[in-house]
Amino acid sequence: MTVDDWDEWVNPETELWRVVAGPRVDQRPLGMTANVVATCAEDAEEVLARCTQVLGLVLRHAQNDLADWPSDDAWTALLPAWFVDACAPSRREATEDRWHLSGWLYWFGEACGAGEVTY
After folding, report:
1. Phi-psi sector, 86: left (phi>0), alpha (psi -120 to 50), beta
2. What is the pLDDT of residues 64-116, one digit of tens each?
3. How far apart (Å, rounded) are the C-alpha atoms in residues 51 and 54?
4. DSSP alpha helix (H) spans, 1-119
5. What is the reported pTM?
6. Contacts 24+ apart (CB under 8 A), 21-25
7. Domain limits of the chain?
8. What DSSP designation does 113 have?
């Protein structure tokens, strides 16, 4: 796989498609793949719907001009309250299991306008 293949395969548009619709039946993954098995303390369908809601929102913003990438403060208004409330209230209070919102947004990378690391 070349860098050009990776850029074609991993971008906000294709990631949004995978989050909303899943992979096509004929689609072979490029690069590394992982099977993830998760257990949910609550209704698994509700957990999946919430993940789809948050990731879909962020990926839709990532398709826009990067100059329009929302600030951390703007994200607190854009994202569902249940998600923002689940984040650590400050970088100092962030843990391995409870990230600060800016630390979570960082993983969308500079390609999405997320900027520098802030934990």
Report:
1. alpha
2. 766 788 888 899 999 999 999 999 999 999 998 899 998 888 877 655 544 44
3. 5
4. 3-9, 12-21, 44-62, 72-78, 81-86, 101-106
5. 0.72
6. none
7. 3-17+40-112
8. T
